[in-house]
C-alpha cells in the first residue's frame, strides 16, 4: 500500500462507497456495517483535520477556502451520521431516509475533496512531503480507530462541539 496521503485518503473514500453498498442491502448486517462506517468516517475526518488540512493550507496552490470548506463538510457528515445512528430500526423507512441523506452528504464531500483539494495537492505538494503526510495521517487515523470514535455517544459529543463552535 502506498504511503502517499492522497492515495490513503482515496482508499478510505472507496471504502466508504463499499460500506454504503452494504448498508443499502437489506440482507446485510446493517448494524455491524454502520458501526464500521461510523468509526472509519470519524477517524478519517479527524485525521484529515489534524494532520492533512493544516499542512495543505501552507501551500499556495492549494485553495485555503476549499480546505476550510472540507472541514465544514466533515461537520455536515457527522450530523448526517448522528441522525442515522439515532434510528433504532434498520428496517424502517426513517433508517432508509437517513442512510440516503448520509450517502448524499458524504458523496458530495468526497467528490469536491477529490476534484479540488486532492488534485491541487497532487500538483503542489512533493511526493516526499505527501509520504510524510501519509504517515502522519495513518498514525492519527489508527489512533482514532483504536478509541472507537464512531460510537453514538462520541458522535453526539462531536456534533455538539461543532454546534457550540458555530454559535
What is the chains' assembly state?
Answer: single chain
Strand content: under 5%
Radius of gyration: 16 Å
Note the total helix count: 6
What is the general shape? globular
Q: What is the helix fraction of residues, given as a range?
A: over 70%
Task: Kindly name the structural category.
Answer: mainly alpha
Q: In this structure, how is the largest beta sheet organized?
A: none
- Which H/E pattern describes the elements? HHHHHH
Low-confidence stretches: none
How many domain modules? Answer: 1
Query: What is the distance, rounded to the nearest whole angstrom, between the alpha carbons of the first and last residues?
Result: 41 Å
Number of strands: 0
Mean pLDDT equals 92
Question: Would you summarize the structure shown here?
Answer:
The protein has helices spanning 5-24, 30-56, 64-85, 93-124, 127-146, 152-166. The chain is mainly alpha-helical and 167 residues long.
Description:
There is one protein chain. Helix content is 81%, strand content 0%. The model has no long low-confidence stretch (mean pLDDT 92). The protein has 167 residues and is mainly alpha-helical. The N and C termini lie far apart (41 Å). It has one domain. It is built from six helices and no strands.
What's the SSE blueprint?
Blueprint: H1 5-24, H2 30-56, H3 64-85, H4 93-124, H5 127-146, H6 152-166
Helix pairs in contact: 1-2, 1-4, 1-5, 2-3, 2-5, 3-4, 3-6
